[in-house]
Amino acid sequence: MKVMEMGRVVSVHSSRGGTGKTLISVNLAAILARKGRNVSLFDMDFRAPSLSTVFKVGDHRLIKYWVNDFLNGDCPIDKTMIDPTSRYNTKGKFLVGLANPSIEAIREMMTKDRIWEREALRRLLRLKPILLNNMEVDYAIYDTSPGVQYSSLLPMQCPVSVGGYFLWSIFWQFGGTFPHLGIVLFSTQLD
């Protein structure tokens, strides 16, 4: 009988922009997927979404749903995901949830009130069992916005019990090295 390993949520955050959060998030997701783990990577940087550029999503009009739509309650999370697994030839499933990069969407996210923020947090908290059980994800990686605004910290509130891993320890675990950039990874089990 195979014992199922608990999944993990990893939020990559920094208090300022330009520190390499997206680069680290994408590479961590790719490393894990290449090692055979099922990974979901989410663009939670709603003020400067960039995963659609990283993954070369050309015509944004072809994307029907974004992570923004999931947080608004307009669609289930699986409708927001693209699957570049075959494109990058990974052993594990590699799913990516994109934030809407349009100016209108960025403006809209900046105007959200506390009621919306509370509902978005509830949706993210309910997402963990969906990722683990329905989508069979081993790791959910959140690429967050810089700063200390609610939208930046929202993905870091999702772990029920936060075990803080500093970036160097994550990269040490996977055989890499890392110079100090002031970025902290938060990780917890999906349960």
Q: How would you sum up this structure, described in words?
A:
It is a single chain. This protein has 191 residues and is an alpha/beta fold. It has one domain: P-loop containing nucleotide triphosphate hydrolases (Rossmann fold, 3-Layer(aba) Sandwich). It contains eight helices and seven strands, in the order E-H-E-H-H-E-H-E-H-H-E-H-E-H-E. A seven-stranded mixed β-sheet has the order 3-4-2-5-1-7-6. The radius of gyration is 16 Å and the shape is globular. The C terminus is likely disordered.
Describe this structure in a few short sentences.
This protein has 191 residues and is of the alpha/beta class. It is 36% helix and 19% strand. It has a 7-stranded mixed sheet with strand order 3-4-2-5-1-7-6.
Give the spatial strand order of the biggest sheet: 3-4-2-5-1-7-6
Instruction: Give the ordered list of helices and strands.
Output: EHEHHEHEHHEHEHE
- Mind telling me the C-alpha Rg? 16 Å
Distance between the termini: 20 Å
The CATH class is identified as: Alpha Beta
Mean pLDDT, as a whole number? Answer: 75
**CATH homolog superfamily:** P-loop containing nucleotide triphosphate hydrolases
In which range does the helix fraction lie? 25-40%
Tally of helical runs: 8
Overall geometry comes to: globular
Largest sheet: 7 strands, mixed
Number of domains: 1
> Low-confidence segments, ≥5 residues, pLDDT <50?
159-191
Strand content: 15-25%
Which helices and strands, and how do they pair?
Layout: E1 7-13, H1 21-34, E2 39-44, H2 51-54, H3 67-72, E3 81-82, H4 85-88, E4 94-97, H5 103-110, H6 114-134, E5 139-144, H7 150-153, E6 163-166, H8 167-173, E7 184-190
Parallel strand pairs: 1-5, 2-4, 2-5
Antiparallel strand pairs: 1-7, 3-4, 6-7
